[in-house]
Amino acid sequence: MAKAAAKHNRVSVIHVCSDETLTSNLELVESNDDLIYTITAYYQKVKSKLPFISQWLKMKRLMKAYEVAYLHLIEKKGIAQLIQLNVAMPAGIGVLNLSKKYHIPFVLNENWSGYTMEDGNYKGILLKYFTQKIVAQAKKIMPTSLYLQEAMLAHGLKGDYEVVPNVVDVHRFFPKLAPSDGRLKLVHISSLIEREKNVSGILRAFQQALKQNSNMELVIIGEGDNKLELKALAELLGILANTKFMGRVVGDELIQTLQVSNALIMFSHYETFCLVIIEALACGKPVITSNAGAIPSYMNDKLGLMVEKKNEDQLCEAILKLSANSNQFDAQYLRAFAEKYSYERVGQQLDEIYKQAILNK
Fold first, then answer.
1. pTM score, whole prediction
2. Cβ 321 vs Cβ 69: under 8 Å
3. How far lies 247's CA from each of 26, 184, 227, 228, in Å?
4. Interstrand relation of 263-265 and 287-290 (parallel, antiparallel or unpaired)
5. How many C-beta atoms surround the C-beta of residue 54 within 10 A?
6. CATH number of residue 290's parent domain
7. Same structural domain, 142 and 198
8. Residues 67-104: pLDDT tens digits?
9. What counts of helices (H) and strands (E) characterise the chain?
10. CB count, 10 Å around CB of 2?
């Protein structure tokens, strides 16, 4: 998002996190990446086992870290006209303090799934108290989808909303001709969190599809608490010979894995956007996906195959349909669709929001 914003604005980033190995109270680390100046502020991790004391100390250290980082930023880059807060909590505690103390307006970019009914993690007195204050004072709330906006409104989080989707670096994710071994290659990329991504459902549907077409491979990319359980399930289902767990893959290797695949496969229970779908489309690859959360708002028949959530029979049928004709989707159309989420396009939308927020401060 920062790189998209930087297409039309001077952007600096403040990132704050705890560090249990830190010996001093606070440490600042500076970097410059793609012309974006970044300050990472590390504060001592709170070690109190008393919940109230722990939360209070974390809040105080967080606020202090943001303020010290911002004052350092002023020395390097000058006074900020606007703050963009990415995800309300816990960073919003620090941003609220900066906004009030230094009279800087802020906008909120939100993609947390906790607001959704399926996730259900928007709970707790402190979380709700601060989130309500943050949303009320934000000049603009920018959820990644209408689905997420409606979930936030259902919790009474009223404000000035405008959907701003996630962005894709379409200059890095692009179609590329690659040699094929003749097998249909499906790629799944996620956190492997079972309650959200339903990777076990993919494995079971893939097992059924293999019974009718054994010339297929499933590549699973990601790390998570459920990874070992998923590998054990693949072994139990007898599909390890056709299933490859690659672990965490990033950068060029991730892009290349998409480029040599035939399709991305997702079977989530809920999604506030699902960026990896757009990354696959940018590589000219169709998608097999469930109709989870925000996905139906942009998915169409030219982009791939969509099935009902939890319906493993439909997912199996979709896999077999794609295996019968893996070239049925137009790679150029897929690529053109993904370009709507480029840094340039989203950056222009952000620029208009910023101008209005500064004007109305």
1. 0.93
2. no
3. 33, 20, 9, 11
4. parallel
5. 13
6. 3.40.50.2000
7. no
8. 999 999 999 999 999 999 999 999 999 999 999 999 99
9. 13, 12
10. 18
